[in-house]
Amino acid sequence: MNVNRRLFGILSSLTSVAVAQSARGAMPIEGTAGPLFIATWPFGLPACKQSLVSLKAGGSVLDAVEQGIRVAEADTEVDSVGVGGIPNANGVVQLDACIMDGTNQKAGAVAALEDYPHPISVARKVMERTKHVFVVGQGAKDFAAQQGFEKQDLLTPQQREKWKQWLKENGKEVPKGSHDTISLLGIDAERRIAGGCSTSGLAYKLHGRVGDSPLIGGGLYVDGEVGAAGATGIGENILRYCGTFLICELMRQGKTPTEACIGAIERIARGDRKKPADLSVNFVALDKQGRWGAAGTDESFVAAVVTNQEAKIIKPEIVR
Ligand code: GLY
What is the CATH number of the domain that holds 238? Predict the structure, then answer.
């Protein structure tokens, strides 16, 4: 489903939606910092709503992030995350995810995970049940089985047909917008911060290819003292600059979340000697004060923000 259709569906189902003109200068929430959740793309909205429900039910902000991302992973209509994700060039769905807890700077990640629909939860188990941070491929699959996760066929009949068509067309270039990732960040009323990131990655990617999403500092970074940032877009353009770590460092230097996202985009464009419009890099961020921000280079990029007061899709700063 393309981004516009998703957006339309979500907008029409909401009773109270505000589409803000700009994320720049979003004001701090008075009083406490949170709860506040921000996520990439329209499918981030139901995910963030679930995060708030989980937090209100007594879960930690880490639980809330995991539960929110699981909503997108379980939704077969979301063709870039979890079940129903676009397969790689071999017709295999390989999932990447990471999760990070700002209360202790712990993190867990999995990449190229096959047959298990919730890589975010497997990543969390890596964080909590092993001495390691990152487990990949067959090792990740073995670990998921050992932890008792349920297997599922991730390739839907629709995605199989589209992949076959792509093969028939000799692997013609995949149009922009055919990949997107959920990055979801949260802060609670005590200013505890967590984040997660989950994707099936670039459509028809090389078997075994890993993008930015499961990389700590690439697709996601959480700094419990400063804030958090998450990414979506062409992983190769994000991971070479440690994009989300860079955003956290820019916030540490005093930039607002949106200014920091723009700063990262400008740094990548400068380094690559390209126009931002040619990069497909998009970010969401929040800081310890409870301010959120977002910026991207894709015209179609939107983000979702959920607090106690509102649930809305915002149009971030677009840098071209
Ligand atoms: N940002 C997702 C990927 O490039 O795999």
Answer: 3.60.20.30
Which pLDDT does position 12 carry in this prediction? 36
Nearest protein Cα to ligand 1, atom 5: 201
pLDDT of residue 1: 43
Question: Rounded to whole angstroms, how far apart are CA atoms 80 and 144?
Answer: 21
End-to-end Cα distance, the chain? 25
In this model, does residue 280 exceed pLDDT 50?
A: yes
Q: What is the pLDDT of residues 127-155, one digit of tens each?
A: 999 999 999 999 999 999 999 999 999 99
pLDDT confidence of residue 131: 98
> Quick one: which atom of ligand 1 is closest to the CA of 80?
2
Distances (CA, A) of 230 to 15, 260, 286, 315: 27, 12, 9, 16
Q: Is the CB of 181 under 6 A from ligand 1?
A: yes
CA 128 to chain CA centroid, Å, is 21
- Pocket probe for ligand 1: among 93, 238, 282, 298, the residue whose CB has the most ligand atoms within 8 Å is 238
Among 81, 136, 183, 202, which residue has the most ligand 1 atoms within 8 Å of its CB, making it the best to mutate?
A: 202
For residue 69, what are the domain limits? 3-318
Element spanning 37, H or E: strand 36-40
CA 234 to ligand 1 centroid distance, Å: 5
Has this prediction a pTM greater than 0.85? yes
pLDDT in tens, 302-313: 999 999 999 999
Number of structural domains, the chain? Answer: 1
pLDDT at 34: 85
Strands 106-113 and 134-136: parallel
Whose C-alpha lies nearest to ligand 1, atom 4?
235
